[in-house]
Amino acid sequence: MPVFDGLFSQDGRFARFMNLLWSLIVTSGLWIVCSLPVVTAGAAASAAYYALAKTARFHAGGSTASEFLRSFKQNLRQSLPLSVGLTAALALVVVEAMYLYSDADVPLWFLYVFYLMALLLAALGMYVWPCLSRFEMGNLALLRMGVVLMFRYLHITLALLLGLAALLAGIWLMPWGLPLFPGLAVYLETFLMERVLLRCSPKPEEGSPEAKKWYYHVSGDEQEEPDER
Question: For FRET with 202, which of 3, 8, 51, 196 sits at 20 to 30 Å CA-CA?
Answer without folding.
Answer: 51
